[in-house]
Amino acid sequence: MRRLLLAVSSLLGLIAAPIAAATGDSAPDTEVCEGCEALLELAAANDLRKDDRARDKYRNPVETLSFMRVTPSMKVGEYAPGGGWYSRMLALYLGQQGHLTGLYFNPEVVPFDGSTLADQAAAFPKKVTEWTGIPESSVSGMTLGAIPDEEKGTYDRVLVMRMMHNVMRWNIADSEIKAMRDLLKPGGMLGIVQHRAKPDAPYSYADGGHGYLREADIIKFMEVNGFELVAKSEINANPKDSANWDEGVWTLPPTYALKEQDKAQYAAIGESDRMTLLFRKRD
Questions:
Q1: Rounded to an integer, what distance in angstroms lies between the CA atom of residue 176 and that of residue 19?
Q2: Helix or strand or coil: residue 281?
Q3: What beta strand segments (E) does the chain contain?
Q4: Which pLDDT belongs to residue 21?
Q5: What CATH code would you report for 53-239+277-281?
Q6: pLDDT (tens digit per residue) in 61-81
Q7: Which UniProt keywords apply (predicted)?
Q8: What's the gap between Cα 227 and its chain centre?
Q9: What pLDDT, in 10s, does the model give residues 6-43?
Q10: Rounded distance between C-alpha atoms, residue 142 and residue 108, angstroms
Q11: In this structure, what are the phi and psi dihedrals at residue 161, rounded to the nearest 5 degrees?
Q12: Cβ contacts of 137 within 8 Å, gap of 6 or more
């Protein structure tokens, strides 16, 4: 950890000016953060991620966060942080200058008992500190049903990683995305990684219930909800995934819904085909 901090400190001096330019309220599409990818590589290589690293070849955290233009001094919200795979990566990257917030579901709209969500949000900083050694002061947590007024309009990025299918099938996407939009600065950006259905997949399959959504549907949905598409990437694409499994995306690793049945076949395919999209908050 100490070697990482020393390397980070030296690199931060080199990239201070580009960071300042990149964190303005309405950063240009051509913004470049010199040195940021090196910092992402350092975070990804940290020994504290040794148990997470096996999935890097499918989740591509360095390339994904670089594509989403996340710089080390940003205030970043991670939606539905779950087991902390991306939380650990983000905390190690943002911990010296930036701030990470775990954004939990609004307990008033979820189709399950949300009574523990506020407690989970409150516990998020301590969990991240235990995982990474990053000070608790660099981390916070909140539910989208209890956003303090002073937090609105202060976030550079909000990241929604493989979660749009759930909010779509639960019919809470509109209210959750609206809350995330309220958090973003003018010109702030929202990044999405999502299991991708084929363009001609029937709605009965691509409604979120199987884990897959059509890319065009997500783009349209975000546009209707006050965002404009900035860029899309094939970083997390997997052409081996036919995206038509009876058991949905959970047929593939790491879930293996069919357990040992044809497991070698699904392991050879790998994790799902995923869209990677970046949107800007529209005025």
A1: 29
A2: strand
A3: 75-79, 99-104, 139-143, 155-161, 184-195, 227-233, 274-281
A4: 35
A5: 3.40.50.150
A6: 999 999 999 999 999 999 999
A7: Methyltransferase, Signal, Transferase
A8: 17
A9: 444 444 444 443 433 333 333 444 456 888 999 999 99
A10: 14
A11: -100, 110
A12: none
Residue type, 7: A
- What is the DSSP secondary-structure string of 82-126? TTSHHHHHHHHHHTTT-EEEEEE--TTTSSS--TTHHHHHHHHHH
What is the DSSP code (8-state) at residue 272? Answer: P
Length of the chain: 283
> Quick one: tokens of 97?
């200058």
Domains in the chain: boundaries: 53-239+277-281
Taking alpha carbons only, the member of 243, 250, 191 closest to residue 222 is: 191
Amino acid present at 227: F
pLDDT in tens, 160-213: 999 999 999 999 999 999 999 999 999 999 999 999 999 999 999 999 999 999
Interaxial angle between packed helices 2-22 and 36-45, expressed in degrees from 0 to 180 and rounded to the nearest 10? 150
Q: What are phi and psi of 92, to 5 degrees?
A: -65, -30
